[in-house]
Design goal:
globular, alpha/beta, eight-stranded mixed beta sheet, 15 helices, three-stranded mixed beta sheet
């Protein structure tokens, strides 16, 4: 019999509907896999009871001849940035240790209403700040991949959704939620050989998602292929009156509209994305992606996004500024940790709690953000960065006059070893060089695996689309997926 943990979302959904296997068998298989994968440190909390309860509901409904829900029988992983009712939610930070929300985030609630079960809460960079999953207060996530050159250095699974990417690649779950502020779905997807899409800003509600940078944060799915991402995204999306930035639009039938035929589509290649010292393997994969899209019927055109070089500096002003504001709420009064030294007054408690609760990277970004928002520097930094953001969005608008989609690499390298860039924040921030511009513009963007580097590690290609054109992004992703034929997977060493 097929190993059920090798199946993706669509295969599990269809198998349960047809009675090929029961939802309980699927849940049990994944629960065992999760319990045996402690070495990856991908799960912060395991919730087998949640997965089993959803599976029982699916099996009962099928036995009664009732119509099954869209995700009935599919157990998933939930990034720990989403608040889940009755289950600890920490954003991988000590300051929220012990916090159990009495409410459900809109996105997780939609997934449970669609019939999905939860295998557990997934590790991540603390408050989603990081590109390697090394800032979690609960230890690094280890990528299931290893270099094929005989080196056994533990590798980064990408960040901040590193627990999600590692769990999917290791077959601990068929899909998971992620969040993307500057590339936190796409970069870890590229590092681990899976797919992930950040939809248009406002497609998925941010209500109940622990905030990092509110004008950038967006939830999205991560899975093993494009079709599974489309299925997950349909279940996660939709208007939410509790989120003022939520788009009041119907959710398209993305799965039904999937097609790898790109005839009539023009795909732009932005010349500014050919950065200095780009590894030849990344450049070669980009050219392969161009050839694959031509083969799918697309016309390739060169476009210019002249303000691309300013995207990363602008992002690292805007995002920390919003983080410093959002994280001001964690002061020891309402949530999680409280450090109250003997004889301390209220201000002492604030200082002691925040000093003990936040990690170094979070403190760094709060300090940067507080500085750029301060009275003497607000206009010089924050206002200027917002102007640059507008110019970057205009670059994309002009590009859409000559093309429908953009193709770029997802990340400037394959996965690196844990610790390799930890002492150099600027080198770490450069990981997001290809993903940040579309985040600043609020556009949908997706990473799909395209091949392996010389060390046998996955490399990803990124498709960027116009606002609300998730269908175009998914279709181009499918065209790449069909031609890349990526079937590599990590050997189970854990």
């Amino acid at each position: 019999m097929t190993d059920l943990t090798d199946l993706g979302v669509a295969a599990i959904r269809d198998g349960v509907r047809l009675g090929t296997f029961s939802a309980r068998e699927v849940a049990d298989a994944f629960i065992v896999k999760v319990s045996r994968a402690k070495a990856l440190n991908a799960f912060l909390v395991e919730t087998p009871d949640h997965a089993i309860a959803a599976a029982k509901e699916a099996d009962t409904a099928r036995a009664a001849g009732e119509a099954l829900k869209p995700l009935a029988g599919v157990p998933i992983g939930m990034k720990d940035l989403f608040c889940t009712k009755g289950v600890a939610s920490t954003a991988a930070s000590h300051i929220l240790e012990g916090f159990t929300p009495p409410y459900e985030s809109t996105v997780s609630g939609k997934l449970w209403n669609a019939g999905a079960g939860m295998l557990g809460k997934l590790n991540m960079d603390q408050f989603a700040m990081g590109s390697s999953n090394e800032t979690s207060a609960f230890g690094n996530v280890i990528s299931p991949w290893r270099r094929a050159d005989g080196g056994n250095a533990p590798l980064a699974p990408g960040g901040s959704s590193g627990g999600s990417s590692a769990a999917i690649a290791a077959r601990l779950c068929p899909a998971a939620t992620g969040t993307d502020t500057g590339g936190s779905i796409r970069q870890p997807a590229a590092f681990t050989g899976i797919s992930g899409i950040k939809p248009t800003y406002g497609r998925c509600s941010r209500w109940g998602v622990v905030a990092f940078a509110s004008s950038l944060d967006q939830a999205g799915p991560m899975a093993r292929n494009v079709k599974d991402c489309a299925i997950m995204l349909e279940a996660m999306s939709g208007f939410d009156p509790k989120d003022a930035t939520s788009l009041e639009l119907d959710v398209p039938r993305w799965e039904q509209g999937l097609s790898g035929n790109l005839r009539g589509k023009r795909v732009g290649i932005p010349k500014e994305y050919r950065v200095d010292n780009m590894p030849s393997e990344i450049d070669a994969l980009w050219q392969k992606g161009i050839d694959w899209l031509k083969d799918a019927g697309a016309e390739i055109v060169e476009v210019s996004l002249p303000h691309t070089k300013y995207a990363l500096p602008a992002y690292y002003i805007i995002a920390p500024a919003e983080a410093s504001s959002n994280l001001a709420r964690y002061d020891g009064v309402r949530y999680g940790l409280r450090d109250l030294p003997e004889g301390a007054n209220l201000l002492d408690m604030y200082a002691a709690t925040r000093a003990a609760g936040f990690g170094p990277e979070v403190k760094r970004r709060i300090l940067i953000g507080t500085y750029v928002l301060s009275a003497g520097f607000y206009d010089a930094y924050y206002t200027q960065a917002q102007k640059v953001r507008t110019l970057i969005a205009r670059d994309f608008d002009r590009a859409w006059e000559s093309c429908d989609l953009l193709l770029t690499p997802t990340a400037p390298s394959a996965a690196f070893a844990l610790g390799e860039k930890l002492a150099d924040p600027l080198a770490m921030y450069l990981n997001d060089v290809f993903t940040v511009p579309s985040s600043l513009a609020g556009l949908p963007a997706m990473s799909v695996p395209g091949g392996l580097d010389k060390s046998g590690l996955p490399l990803g290609l990124q498709i960027i689309g116009k606002a609300l054109d998730e269908q175009g992004v998914l279709n181009a992703g499918l065209a790449l997926e069909e031609r890349a034929g990526f079937v590599a997977r990590p050997e189970a060493w854990w």
